[in-house]
């Protein structure tokens, strides 16, 4: 009966690790090979203990220090089970569009819909975009091709137009306030430049 290839690969890595450690300590690696052969675990419990020991030794050597994301909270822990989290995250991270099952592409599009609507200039464009989005969500729900279920909600066009108008008005108010502030600063600078220097000092 042939040996399990995964176990053989793991054992090869452990033997090589033991040889490297022996060389680092100034010992003869052949003696280490013989000791490793004698200490080779045979039962499942011994193999688990052997692997745990190797992991603890690697931790003590600092091989797991400074890994990417060390000390940071795990992303995407919302408390809701999402079996397709990795596909969704890849689509969002690499900003892929039109790829993946409709359940995922529509979910990504749903999160970006307000930003897309904010780039439009007329209410008719906003209504048309929302109606097109709703149509594609309903079509995806009707398809029986397998894959993850479509949980993306449809949007009410009137509500989206109202929210789009409020966001647009808020942006316009902010822009006008910034213009007034810049004009006030410019006028103040012009008045200061026209004032004689002896009055400015006083």
How would you describe what is shown here?
This protein is mostly helical. It has two domains: 57 residues, no CATH class; 108 residues. 67% of the residues lie in helices and 0% in strands. Helix 1 packs across helix 2. It is flat.
Task: Jot down its keywords.
single chain; mainly alpha; 9 helices; flat
Question: What are the SSEs and their pairings?
Answer:
Layout: H1 5-24, H2 29-38, H3 44-61, H4 85-93, H5 102-111, H6 113-118, H7 123-142, H8 157-194, H9 197-201
Quick summary:
Helices cover 67% and strands 0% of the residues.
Share in β-strands: under 5%
Distance between the termini: 100 Å
Based on CA atoms alone, the radius of gyration comes out at 32 Å
Structural class: mainly alpha
Q: Which percent bin holds the helix content?
A: 55-70%
Ranges where pLDDT stays below 50 over 5 or more residues in a row are none
H/E element sequence: HHHHHHHHH
Shape type: flat
Q: Would you report the number of β strands?
A: 0
């Amino acid at each position: 009966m042939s040996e399990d290839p995964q176990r053989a690969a793991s054992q090869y890595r452990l033997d090589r690790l033991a040889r490297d450690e022996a060389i680092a300590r100034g010992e003869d690696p052949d003696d280490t090979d013989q000791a490793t052969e004698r200490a080779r675990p045979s039962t499942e419990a011994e193999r688990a203990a052997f692997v745990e020991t190797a992991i603890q030794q690697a931790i003590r050597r600092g091989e797991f220090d400074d890994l990417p994301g060390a000390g940071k909270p795990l992303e995407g822990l919302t408390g809701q089970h999402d079996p397709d989290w990795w596909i969704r995250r890849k689509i969002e991270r690499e900003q892929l569009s039109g790829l993946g099952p409709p359940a995922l592409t529509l979910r990504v599009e749903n999160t970006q819909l307000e930003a897309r609507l904010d780039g439009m200039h007329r209410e008719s464009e906003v209504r048309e975009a929302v109606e097109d989005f709703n149509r594609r969500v309903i079509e995806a729900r009707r398809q029986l091709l397998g894959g993850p279920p479509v949980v993306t909600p449809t949007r009410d066009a009137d509500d989206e137009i109202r929210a789009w108008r409020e966001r647009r008005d808020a942006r316009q108010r902010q822009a006008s306030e910034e213009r007034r502030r810049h004009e006030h600063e410019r006028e103040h600078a012009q008045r200061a430049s026209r004032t004689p220097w002896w009055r400015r000092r006083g």
